[in-house]
Design goal:
alpha+beta, 5-stranded antiparallel sheet, 4-stranded antiparallel sheet, 10 helices, 12 strands
Length: about 250
């Protein structure tokens, strides 16, 4: 985030369409929903802006209305470790918000994005008063646990094709990211940032997965055809050319 124009200084009231895309609002009773919608703000993030940073106190529970974010941290050697991406519809940081502890990770915009924030005091008021909100948070925490167990497994995979497949599967999680649907709007470079591979190697993996019939590369993004196969890594045999990297890969939007 640039020092002369921090994201919080660009906050504004949400539009009706932006509120409509927030999945947990429909779980609230009318009075609870009115309180929440009156407190929610949104910010227009530029590529490279930080939504939250390691060590900063939690002031909002955040969600992504539009765009793409990445969650990362720096290790002892100064290298950046990317934990996961956050596509539209995803809300994150509920564990940090519940405990009111400083952030242990960075959240950064990979492209122009619209980020929503629910003030931490309103978040805790809903925890104290709303059964529907509590159930949503409980489901979030349960799915998040599974997500990070899977992320640890991905880190130990030697196959780039499997790493790309499992990373894609995590972005198509219908509970954590209900706004994605069947098509993820992402470029190969953005996916390379999230997976931790070169753009060229990601391109080859996408060609392999497309040859297996589990995804389809379209203009502007990727369409999932077999989410179960992406999650399990059990692919049908791909054409020999694609398997050996000799196929001419199709390109997502650059």
């Amino acid at each position: 985030m640039t020092q002369d124009a921090p994201l919080h200084q660009r906050r504004r009231p949400p539009t009706a369409d932006e509120l409509h895309g927030i999945p947990w609002l429909e779980r609230l009773l009318p009075a609870e929903r009115e309180r929440a919608t009156g407190a929610i703000v949104v910010g227009d993030a530029r590529a490279g802006d930080y939504v939250c940073r390691i060590g900063r106190p939690v002031t909002y529970w955040f969600g992504l209305v539009e765009g793409l974010l990445k969650m990362s941290a720096d290790n002892a050697d100064g290298l950046t470790m990317t934990f996961t991406g956050v596509p539209p519809g995803g809300w994150f940081g509920e564990g940090t918000a519940v405990k009111r502890e400083p952030y242990r990770y960075n959240i950064q915009a990979l492209r122009r994005s619209v980020v929503a924030g629910l003030p931490i005091e309103t978040f805790h008021w809903l925890l104290d008063h709303s059964i529907g909100f509590n159930r949503f948070i409980m489901n979030q925490l349960n799915e998040r646990l599974g997500q990070f167990i899977a992320a640890r497994e991905i880190d130990r995979m030697n196959s780039p094709d499997l790493r790309v497949a499992r990373s894609l599967a995590s972005l198509f999680n219908p509970v954590l990211y209900p706004g994605v649907g069947d098509v993820l709007r992402i470029t190969q470079q953005e996916l390379a940032y999230l997976v931790g591979l070169s753009r060229q190697r990601v391109n080859e993996a996408l060609a392999f997965l497309e040859g297996c019939g589990v995804i389809r590369v379209e203009y502007g993004g990727l369409r999932v055809l077999d989410l179960a196969a992406l999650r399990s890594g059990q692919f049908a045999h791909a054409p020999a050319l694609a398997r050996h990297g000799d196929a001419r890969p199709r390109r997502a939007r650059q």
